Amino acid sequence: MSKTYELVNPFADAIVESLRAVGYSLETAISDIIDNSISAGAKKIQLTFFWDVEHSYIRIEDNGRGMTREELVEAMRLGTRNPLQSRSERDLGRFGLGLKTASFSQCRRLTVKSKTCSTINNTRCWDLDFIQLERSWALLDETFNEQSEERLATTMNNEAGTIILWENMDKVLGEKINNKSHDNFLKKIERTEKHISMVFHRFLKGAHAINIFINGNKIVPWDPYMTDEMTTIEFPEQSYSDGKGIITIKPYLLPHHSKLTKKAYILGEGTKGWNEMQGFYIYRNQRLLVAGDWLGLFKKDESCKLARIIVDIPNNLDVAWDIDIKKASARPPDFIIDELALIGRRVREASTKVYYHRGTTVQKRLNQEVISTWKQVQQHGNISFRVNRDHPIVSSLFKNNTQVKKEVEALLSLIEETIPIDLISSHSISNHQQVRDEKIKLDEIRYVLSEVIVALKEGGLGDEAIRNQVSRMDPFNKYPEIIAMLI
Q1: Torsion angle of alpha carbons 126, 131, 136, 138, nearest 10°?
Q2: Which pTM was predicted?
Q3: pLDDT digits (tens, 9 = 90+) for 295-312
Q4: Which residue, of 325, 407, 426, 444, has the greatest Cβ tally within 10 A?
C-alpha cells in the first residue's frame, strides 16, 4: 500500500544523553568492549586505568584484526547492526550498540584508533559536548586534542589492532572529586578485575587462551565450579534442542566449607559471596552472562549455596532468551523451563544434603566424566542417539572376536534405529524418571554389574582398574556400596 509520511529524526544530543542511562556499571561496560576485541580475534588485551584527578582516563588496546576507515566509521555508528541479523557463531555482539552505549555510560569523550595489516591508522571521536553544541551526529575524524593523541600511542607495536580511549569520565569519577576519589578509583579497578576474571574465565585458560592485563598485571581466571578441588561433584552434561540450537546443562556441587582451606573458601565466594552466587550460570558463546541466579524458579537458600549449574546457549537463541543490551540478564524460553526446574530441584536437594551432613558424598566420583551408555549426535541439523562405542563393555566385545563385532554392531544399529522417541517424548521427564527408577531394582543392578565385572576381568583388567571403570559408568556410579561389595 502506498503511504504518505514525513521523516522525524531524533535529536542527537537528546539521544546520546538518554543512552547514558542504560544501566552499565564500569565493569559491565568494559566487558562489552572486551567482547568486541575477542570477536576481532585479539589474543592480547591491555587495560590502562590512569589516575590524573579530573583528567584521569581509561584506555583499552588489543591486537585484533583492526578496522579500515570505512569499518571504523560504521563501528562508531549507533545501531550499526540489526539484532535480528544472523552472525558468526563466535560473535559476542548483538545490537551494534555496545561500543557506544558502554562508553557513553562512563565518559563524555570516546576516541577509537584502529588499523589493519594493510591500512594506516584511522581515528574517530565522539565528544558529547561537541554533539550538544552542534545538535547533530558530528563524528570527529581526528583526536580532540594533542593530549588525546599522546594517550593513543600504541604500546604493543602490532601490525593490526584497536585502541579505545575514554576521557572526561564523569560517571567513573563522580560529580565531585574529593579526597576519597582516588581510593574509589582503585576499588573500581579491583572490581573490574574480578568481574573480568569471572565473565571471561573460559577465554583466559586453555590451549587458545587470550591474555588480558590491567595496568600490566595479568588477569587470572576465576573458576566458579572449583573443579580443582577434590571434593567438588561434577554431574553429567545434558543437552536439549528446540530445533534452532543446542542448549547444554552441566550441574556442579561445590564442597562443604569443612572440606576447604580458608584460602579456597574465600576464593570460592566469588564477587558476591557464597549465598548470592548459587544457581544457574548462563553462557553465550563461552562468555558468562548471568552468574548465580535461579531465574525465578526458586529462591536463594543458605542450604543451596553449593549448587552452581552451567547453562550454555548459542548466539542464535538471543531473542528466545531475551538477552539485553548490557549482556547482563537473560530469561529462559518456555520450552526449557521444565528441564531447568527439574535439574535445579535435584541439585538443590543434593546441596541441602551435603550442607547438613558436612560433605557427604552425593553421587559420583570427582573430576571424572561419567561413561554414558548413549551419545547424542547432531548431523545436518538433526539430532539422533547412538550407543557409545567407546563404552568399556562395547569395546571389549568388539576387540575379542571379528564375527561377534559384526553381530553386536548390527544389533546396536537396530536398537538405535528403532528407539520409540515419540512414545518416550509423550511422557514428561519427571514421569519418565519415576518409571525408570521404579523399574531398576537393586538386585538387577547387582546382577548386571556382576556380569560387567566378569567381562572386564576376562579383558585383563585388575580390581582397581575395574573399580575405576565401573565407578564412572551410568547407572553404576550411583551405587558405590554395591561396587565395593562385588569387587
Answers
A1: -30
A2: 0.72
A3: 999 999 999 999 999 999
A4: 325
